[in-house]
Amino acid sequence: MSLPKTSFAMVQTAARTLEARDIPLPNIDDDSALLRVEACGICGSDYEQYSGALSTPMNVVPGHEPLGTIAAIGDRAARRWGVDVGDRVAVETMLACHFCDNCLAGSYHICNSRRIYSYIPVDESPGLWGAYSQYMFIDANSVVHKMDPQLPAEIAVMFNPLGAGFRWAVELPQTRIGDTVVIMGPGQRGLASVLACREAGAGTIIVTGLSADADKLQVAKGFGADHCIDVENENAVERVQQITNGRGADVVVDVTSYATQPIADALSLCRTGGTIVLAGVKGFKAIPDFVSDLIVVKEITIKGAIGVTSSGYRSAIRLIESRRAPLEQMHTHDFALKDAELAIRTLAREIPDEESIHSCLIPEF
Cα(133)–Cα(4) distance, rounded to whole angstroms? Predict the structure, then answer.
């Protein structure tokens, strides 16, 4: 199939400004590829980028959760990735050098020179870096995962949030069979954490959220949460102590955005010798009422989490391809590529009477 000369894409040119453009399709070399985008997931950080809260370059094509089929590929890239033209792939978000100290130690997601697809300017060749586009360039340093082509695109594209659930809520805290886990925040990644913890054999899963999160908390129950706590109408610390007979949770995972109270509460929710994973960003705000002595006297381990690694993605893809998880309960919206701004604002609750959990852009061809 012959390829077009240009790709329709949405380009962010300033805070809260997306412009439709036709960008030339690049030539690829032996080590790179071109992706025909089937779907791009909308992430909470897309709103931070859109609103200007994240200081990212302009002009850029946003979108770092791409799913699609290989439209063109170099010979060495095909051998290295084990894929060819027509194969469906999920593309990892981060580009690493694979040679710095962190990469060589196995932590390529914190590469000393890491880059994120959706933050690379369009004036940097070849231009089509982000996935708010019909086509996307796949760099030689990318990591790609082959996926079942029979899955609906809006389900397959959940590899990214679900990968975060496995890494943040299972791998980092080393969640074990029978553990009690508290997940703070029922957004995409909180709900993905429920699925991951259930898959890992957690004994009791508790999810906290706001009154406005009632629908999401209902989905959490459908995903296997044992208890859901509305923190505006219940005292989360007291409720968790009650559920655990005063012991506290083995693992506490915070995936809330901007709210600082969950961090202070996590120290009380966590059992002596337990683990807290912090994955929700707070806009670099200080944490009031953070009692560090609780970390000392309870010997709590606190871990930060940024991004997903291949093991998390592989676990996510296995679960998605198994078709055992009711992922359709989390997917709420499909948007046309030209409606990217509406998609972002819907996720951010800026559109009255619209509640988005997981949504994605579906390019038209």
Answer: 13
Contact of 198 with 177, CB cutoff 8 Å: no
Sequence letter at residue 46: D
Interval 49-93: pLDDT, tens: 999 888 889 999 999 999 999 999 999 999 999 999 999 999 999
Determine phi and psi for 266, rounding to 5 degrees: -55, -35
Is pTM beyond 0.90? Reply is yes
CA distances in angstroms from 190 to 56, 355, 356, listed in the order given: 25, 16, 14
Intervals of the chain under pLDDT 70: 1
52, exposed or middle or buried, with CB in 10 Å at 0-12, 13-18, 19+? middle
**Beta-carbon count within 10 A of 241 CB:** 16
**CA torsion, ordered 76, 77, 83, 87, to nearest 10 deg:** -130
CA 27, 33, 39, 41 torsion-angle sign: negative
Secondary element (H or E) of residue 20: strand 17-24
Query: Half-sphere exposure (CA, 13 Å, Cβ side) for 248?
Result: 18
Quick one: tokens of 158? 């959940």
316, 321, 322, 327 alpha-carbon torsion, rounded to 10°? 70
Domains and CATH numbers, the chain: 6-158+330-362 (3.90.180.10), 161-304 (3.40.50.720)
- The residue type of 309 is T
Give the C-alpha separation, 267 to 294, whole Å. 6
